[in-house]
Amino acid sequence: MTSLPFPLVEAPDEASRERGRKFFAAETTFVKGVVAMSGLPPADRVEICFAGRSNVGKSTLINALTGRKSLARASNTPGRTQEINFFERGPLYLVDLPGYGFANAPVAVVDKWQRLLKNYLSGRATLRRAFVLIDSRHGIKAVDEEILSLLDTSAVPFQVVLTKADKIKLGERDKMLTQVRGALAKHVAAYPELILTSSENGDGIATLRSTITTLTEQS
Length: 219
Description:
Layout lengths: L13 H12 L3 E6 L11 E7 L5 H9 L17 E6 L2 E5 L10 H17 L3 E9 L6 H12 L4 E6 L6 H15 L10 E2 L8 H14 L1
Helix pairs in contact: 1-6
């Protein structure tokens, strides 16, 4: 039997789940919001970042990971996150990037966000992995391809995290996974496993915590 490309990450064993739980049970604090490369905090620890089109659920996912209800500011208004937001969890920076694609802001402001996003991804040596969030209901769209290609050319390993899994039916999920796997096949920086999550019911949160904790321990 031939295994599928880009399989879903298996749920962590009990020991890995507990390491992830303990890691994120410690306090996570907001460090700063950055609007220019000159404002980045010192590159003195491991970083992972969350990228995704506007309103895909980046801030909500960070809150679910850390067990905080309002650590990262979430909004139903696309384009609300206008800065690169840094959060500190011991030896790790979690970085919430501005949403790309549609944003409820003037074109000049959106262009500025996108330039900052590209400069960050291309120039941050301590960035270990980008987690690219994709809405399970829609799969990978053309607007996602630009960021995936940028990660390829920047040699930044990225892993797709599928969000809002509670909002898609099983039959539709299989079709979406086929589409995502096909789209990722051409991207050399794509990590070969997918993580399926729901911040609403907690599905996949332990898996993502374990994945991030392992990245931190390896560095």
